[in-house]
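Subject: Sanity check before I submit

Could someone independently write out the structure tokens for this chain? I want to compare against mine line by line before I put it in a report. The sequence has 254 residues.
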Amino acid sequence: MSHLEKIFISVFFFSNSLYAVDVTEIYRLEDAFHSIDSQTLIVSDLDETLIEPVEDFGHSPWYKYLSKKLIAEGYDKKSALNLLNHVWSRLQFDIDVNPIEPEAPRLLKKVEKKAYRILGLTARALWISERTEQQLRKAKLKWKPFLRTQNAWNHHLNEAVGLRGGILFAGNESKGEVLVKFLSDQKFKPGQIIFVDDLWKHTLSVRDALDSVGIKNQCFKYLGSEERLKNFSPALAEAQLEKYRCSHILRELK
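---
Independent answer below. Compare away.
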């Protein structure tokens, strides 16, 4: 083994060990909430952390499957993702969701009484905020608005980013940067933030952003949705896409 290979392996294992130190992997939401108090702000992702689609499409493997399909058809990566984001957002008006954990509605009500607030932080775009709130209500997931005014905050540089009720919609922006910008605009610094997300990129984005402004935080990588995601069926997804006329949407937007 060359000296360069030894360095690479050392860096690889060191960087992965940092994940274990700074971010805790959990299979149950309740494992993130052992050390909350009245100064704790709970921040949680929505899709594949709190909720999942009733049917087998609209989640990460479906998204990756379709993005590869679009690229194979001639789209560049950026165009494929922009198109897919639009299609995914439109599909939400036909999709119902369930809590990933059946006990999540009861758990969040219990946590809300102990913490300062619960705040959703999602990569969904702001224009489907009303539909998102409808989906959550139907799934019996509801928490107090973060501010007294329903539409109290919008990002001054991106109209797809803003707060509606108790949810921050980050769109394609960095979740960490959006969260810190929002807190800064409110001149609010909680005693600690507990953050839960199913994707590493968002978990590390929030951790790094909070560390950069000196906000104490505990970040958790949620694994509770992984079992279902492993069972993704491309054939079933294709059949469901036809059912919802997604293929027509794709042709329409080409």
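---
OP: Matches mine. For the report I'm noting this point. The chain has one domain: 24-253.
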